[in-house]
Amino acid sequence: MGLEFINRIIRTSLIVSALSFLFVSVYRNFLFGLGLFLGTAWGCLNLFFITQLVVEAFSLKKPNKGKLTLILLIKFPLLYYAGYILLRLKYFPVESLLIGFTLIFAITFLKALGQVVLPSVSRGDKKISPLNPDKINSTNKSLR
Amino acid sequence: MTYQTALALALPFGLAIAAFGSAFGLGRAVSAAMEAMGRQPEAAGKIQVGMIIGCALLEALTIYALVTVFVLSGKIG
User: Fold this and answer.
1) CA-wise closest residue to A95 among B12, B58, B71
2) How far does CA A1 lie from the centroid of its chain?
3) Which of A3, A66, A98, B61 is deepest in the core (most CB within 10 A)?
4) Interface confidence (ipTM) of the complex
5) pLDDT tier at A21 (50, 70, 90 boundaries)?
6) Which chain A residues are Cβ-neighbours of B71 within 8 angstroms?
7) B48–A1: do the CB atoms touch at under 8 Å?
8) pTM to 2 decimal places
């Protein structure tokens, strides 16, 4: 589990929110769907900048001060102001923005749960099927 | 005390408590992660990922409180 885990969370969240946007736009309300997508996009950007900030500031090598300042300037005033504007516009329902913002955490939880429950699948190995435990592939035989 | 007065008094207090809790949690999480990275530099990558997700979750709690305050502040006056 490295930094690619976070990249996968961001990618999956954006895909799920894009699909949700399509479904919600068709079956409920276009603005609700767009708010959901924008909430997720905001959450993904926030997570991306947190990742960059932590990697740059708390890495074992010497931090690049210019990059660190740029990340801080983008994340704290700009991204937060964008979130404030999204809320203050009252163009999108607040619930949709919050659902979109929460989606990323639901996906993080599910992905982490998947890594715990299916560790061999996340490693890329084939696992013994719980439905057919007698069927063991060569990798698992060698492990036994 | 009217409903609006109670709300105007409670919102800043609620936000302050949420910010304090979040800051306290973030401080503890980052300090523990720094200590763990110092003890085991070879595991720094895994510790960083855990710390990033923890930071994001903690920050999200404050953002929820902030959104609630924004929504409820519209009901004052």
Assistant:
1) B71
2) 14
3) A98
4) 0.90
5) very high
6) 94
7) no
8) 0.85
